[in-house]
């Protein structure tokens, strides 16, 4: 999977890969392909959670990779602006997660 490699190349930790479609298949239910990757940098994330403890609800970072009924593949993730506004992340720490949007864009371009 391209995102696994992109996460590894950036020296981020892949904490989990949740295969929703695989689990659905295992219990006899058909659904579109859907995978959630949970990843991040423990040092950067810890500093963010010290500044804003409730941010732990959305960290580590998550990306949903899913396929629509017309076979198009989509990538969805909370925006950095949303996380900053929701959790009042200090401006001097926003760079700790700002790279996620570039990671997604660069991975989609490759």
Number of helices: 5
Provide the residue-averaged pLDDT.
Answer: 95
By DSSP, the count of extended strands is 4
Q: Give the CA-based shape.
A: globular
Order of helices and strands: HEHEHEEHH
Largest sheet: 4 strands, antiparallel
Radius of gyration: 15 Å
Gap between N and C termini:
12 Å
Instruction: Report the β-strand fraction as a percent range.
Output: 15-25%
Low-confidence stretches: none
**Major β-sheet strand ordering:** 1-2-3-4
Q: Helical proportion?
A: 40-55%
- Quickly give the structural class: alpha+beta
What does this structure look like?
This protein is an alpha+beta fold and 110 residues long. 44% of the residues lie in helices and 23% in strands. The chain contains 5 helices and 4 strands, in the order H-E-H-E-H-E-E-H-H. The chain has helices spanning 2-9, 20-26, 42-51, 80-87, 95-109, and strands spanning 13-19, 34-40, 61-67, 73-76. A 4-stranded antiparallel beta sheet has the order 1-2-3-4. Helix 1 crosses helix 5 (95-109). It is globular and about 45 Å long. The relative contact order is 0.17. The model has no long low-confidence stretch (mean pLDDT 95).
Write a concise keyword list for the protein shown above:
single chain, 110 residues, alpha+beta
